[in-house]
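Postdoc handover notes: sequence design on the structure in folder B. Input tokens:
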């Protein structure tokens, strides 16, 4: 079978190669998928470049999520059927014709969810949903987030709405406002414009902002903290700028603010199966009803993986870049 393999860490478009590998065999509790589509996430790119929270032994297969058809079942997997279409995150080497994952993590899909949505339904949406609950924010309160047009930001904005949480969505380019509005997301402000902080204050009508969600780092972290009310939380879940958080000690001290990090992988280590089922069930229901919409920017064949990696790392994307597999 074909698989995207890297033998050294580096720029994904340069170090990834399509190589022939044996079809993997599912072990106890595992399932093998004939892969259909797989998204290119930022954490996938960071893993290949050697900049993520862990480094796999090399050579390694790349990719971590996707949608596919159940091709084989390992011992003890009796809740799935061969031929069933499922979504699965935490896959081993997802960018391949076949991939292995945990049977307990498999998500059967209704026909109402298309493949492009299913391919990216778990990792980023689950991060967004768990992040929203992690904040502890209540109905009627205000949350502000930067990188709002990223995959997690869009999920946070869409899922906060039915909870009665008010969200201010900061983007770094004016044309992203229309992109967000296509999804029914409002309160979108471009930080390119002068006086954008005044726009934020006008939207809240003077109400305090309880939570800031920072996916950028650098000066953007301090900007969010400066807008929070007393006792507000600044939550870091990403560093798109590649720069350390720069925040005001005065804001932390005099607002009695709390700064903390969010990493879904760490939280999942302690997550009980019932909670996971509840979270994933909400995502599936939202995608099936159309309340949760996930955008796709481009789809590339596996043979054109280098172009796909470049597109996934480019600025101004409207949605996920996907790899079309077998």
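Designed sequence:
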């Amino acid at each position: 079978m074909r698989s995207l393999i890297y033998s050294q860490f580096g720029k994904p478009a340069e170090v990834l190669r399509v190589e022939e590998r044996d079809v993997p065999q599912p072990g106890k509790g595992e399932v093998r998928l004939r892969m259909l589509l797989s998204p290119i996430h930022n954490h996938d790119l960071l893993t290949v470049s050697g900049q993520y929270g862990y480094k796999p032994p090399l050579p390694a297969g790349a990719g971590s999520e996707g949608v596919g058809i159940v091709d084989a079942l390992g011992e003890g997997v009796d809740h799935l059927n061969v031929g069933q279409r499922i979504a699965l995150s935490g896959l081993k080497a997802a960018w391949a014709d076949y991939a292995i994952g945990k049977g307990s993590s498999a998500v059967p899909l209704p026909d109402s969810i298309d493949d492009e949505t299913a391919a990216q339904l778990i990792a980023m949406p689950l991060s967004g949903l768990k992040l929203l609950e992690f904040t502890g924010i209540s109905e009627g309160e205000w949350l502000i987030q930067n990188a709002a047009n990223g995959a997690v930001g869009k999920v946070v904005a869409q899922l906060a709405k039915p909870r009665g949480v008010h969200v201010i969505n900061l983007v770094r380019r004016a044309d992203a406002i229309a992109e967000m509005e296509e999804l029914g997301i409002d309160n979108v402000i471009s930080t390119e414009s002068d006086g954008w902080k005044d726009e934020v204050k006008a939207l809240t009508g003077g109400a305090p902002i309880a939570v800031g969600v920072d996916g950028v780092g650098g000066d953007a972290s301090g900007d969010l903290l400066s807008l929070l009310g007393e006792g507000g939380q600044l939550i870091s879940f990403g560093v798109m700028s590649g720069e350390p958080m720069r925040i005001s000690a005065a804001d932390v001290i005099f607002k009695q603010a709390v700064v903390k990090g969010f990493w879904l992988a760490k939280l999942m280590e302690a997550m009980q199966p019932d909670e996971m089922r509840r979270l994933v069930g909400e995502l599936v229901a939202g995608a099936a009803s159309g309340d949760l919409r996930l955008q796709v920017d481009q789809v590339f064949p596996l043979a054109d993986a280098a172009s796909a990696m470049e597109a996934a790392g480019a600025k101004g994307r409207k949605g996920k870049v996907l790899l079309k597999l077998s």
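Context for whoever picks this up: The mean pLDDT is 94. Don't rerun without checking with the PI first.
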